[in-house]
Amino acid sequence: MAALSHVGKWSQKGLVLMRRMLSSGNAPLVMVTDSGGVRTLLLNNPKRRNVLSLEMLEALRDGVTSAPAETRLFLLTAGKEKVFSAGHDLVDLKNNPTEYQRRVFGTASAICLMMQRSPRPFVASVYGLAAAAGCQLVASCDVVIAADTAKFSTPGIKVGLFCSTPGVALTRAVPSKVAMEMLFTGRAISAQEALRSGLVSLMVPSDKLEDETEHVVQSIISNSAAVLALGKQYIYSQMGTTPSAAFKQGTDTMVCNLAHPDAQEGIAAFKEKRAPKWTTPKGK
Questions:
Q1: Where do the H-state alpha helices sit in the chain?
Q2: Measured distance CA(168)–CA(136) in Å, rounded
Q3: Is the pLDDT of residue 151 over 50?
């Protein structure tokens, strides 16, 4: 239970107590914790539905860029809140000049690109509603575990603001017909629909979300960090190419991978029926 144990496995009671203790001072908009090679980023403004203000986005960005070298994986969560994130603060955007608006949208977009370009996996654990830019964050993660209570939407059209930047991540995560229906109607889709469309990797009963998230996180970080980084970089880079170019690049990548010490170790361990010893041990 390394990834979640430092916060009492994100129990709702534990989070409430933690937030009360912080309420007398300036509670961080994003609570950052490190344990066993996992950096957890907890969105921490539930009273405002974890709205992605510029301050929240900058805190999230800093939580990623300040990660220690031993970080193996990022876990993005909001605990068991009914709203994972409601997206951008539209009133704040409306009341500020164009330069500020560009800064907000640009920071959110930069975080999403950072997630996909990072050699480390990003996992989202979603209990409640991820709307607009909140859905954008989720769609930009590599793996998404959702409770059956989760919902996902791009509702900007309902207030006359098309979810253009959220649509970038959404249309790359689900079939275009599914994305366009969400973008054109603003309808929230259920966790079941999100699973069928590919926005979500796994769906579990709400009371099993913490355990399943922990299981997935540990399953990922038990593998070679170097090979995970190589594989992630390849998968994203080949998506924009033709099948012919992708297979050629894939061949080169696998040949390169075979020469890596961790591949040599993994194959030897498989043959010898023992656990592999990676060049970068778990949690280091």
A1: 2-5, 12-23, 54-65, 90-94, 98-117, 133-140, 164-171, 176-185, 191-197, 209-221, 225-238, 243-258, 261-272
A2: 8
A3: yes
